[in-house]
Amino acid sequence: MSETPQVTDAKFKEEVLESDIPVLVDFWAPWCGPCRMVAPVVDEIAEQYQGQVKVLKLNTDENPQTASQYGIRSIPTLMIFKEGQRVDMVVGAVPKTTLANTLEKYL
């Protein structure tokens, strides 16, 4: 299983907002238990939707600017971006089906 790539404040616009395909961003932190619980689900989604959706992780401790810009109050928060706009979000450690169903709306 592959490790989901990280995105930083500096690369957020280029990697997420300017992407040609929808992007799922996992806002997380290393100390967050639920973030660790949802990480394998995010990896599975990345594999399942390879080529259809770009899946990235953003460490909120290391990238506070983007987390603050999008009003991240609790983590994990999974946001879906399409054509440079935030179109949906899921907060908390959710089952894969919940995340997949949310993503399907934007494909």
List keywords for this structure.
23% strand, 4-stranded mixed sheet, alpha+beta, globular, single chain, Glutaredoxin, 4 helices
Can you offer a commentary on this structure?
With 107 residues, the protein is an alpha+beta fold. It has one domain: Glutaredoxin (3-Layer(aba) Sandwich), CATH 3.40.30.10. Helices cover 35% and strands 23% of the residues. It contains 4 helices and 4 strands, in the order H-E-H-E-H-E-E-H. It has a 4-stranded mixed β-sheet, covered by helices on one side. Strand 3 and strand 4 form a beta hairpin. It is globular and about 30 Å long. It starts with 11 loop residues before the first helix and ends with a helix. The relative contact order is 0.24.
